[in-house]
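Open question from group meeting: does this chain pack into something compact, or does most of it stay loose? Before anyone orders reagents, we agreed to write out a predicted structure and look at it together. Recording both the input and the output here so the notebook holds the full record.
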Amino acid sequence: MHSSPTRISQRLQSEVNAAEKFHSSQVMPIMSEAIQHMLHLCPTEVDVAMADFFEAKLAGKEIEQSAKVHSNEKKKATAERASDLVKIISINVFKERPDDILAHVVKQLKAMMLCKK
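Structure tokens returned:
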């Protein structure tokens, strides 16, 4: 017996809604916080700093903010690299839907850094 197109549509819409809710409530808040932190730090190695940020969050440690003022060019370069990382990480988290998002993100960033070497 085949499902009607309406049932399939409703099921797909339900899955899309659940995925959007997961992304907006679970993934984007921590990714937005990470990007903001990177813009304050403007690190040379954004992937390393982002891994450190997520490891600190995972461990429940206080995240230190930088008081240093950075040029707009440095902020732009940092934002671009951080955005690229967030896109890659978000897609993977979205596909995998891990129970522990922070642990998953740390693992993913470390794997990316190993591939870079």
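Observations to bring back to the group:
The radius of gyration is 18 Å.
The CA atoms of residues 68 and 83 lie 21 Å apart.
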